[in-house]
Amino acid sequence: PAVAARGRAVGWDYFQAVGHGVFCELGKGCVDFLKVAAWVCERTDQDWVLVEQDVLPGMGAPKESARRTREYLKRIGV
Description:
By secondary structure, this protein is mostly helical. The protein is 50% helix and 0% strand. The protein has four helices and no strands. The longest helix is centred in the C-terminal third of the chain and has 14 residues, at 62-75. The radius of gyration is 14 Å and the shape is globular.
């Protein structure tokens, strides 16, 4: 939340906000993914879940980020 608030205050564009880490990996930010996971698991009208992770060049390894994200999702039951 602090990164997003700072970005709004100074007027970052999308790329600046992402570069400053506004879209962190699942489980490292402020979203309560346990509640999201519970909601997803209660649904009976879907067969899959899509997870998008924004990583710009120079921000790390997308493949490793995807691996960590998948491991996190498994830990919370998704």
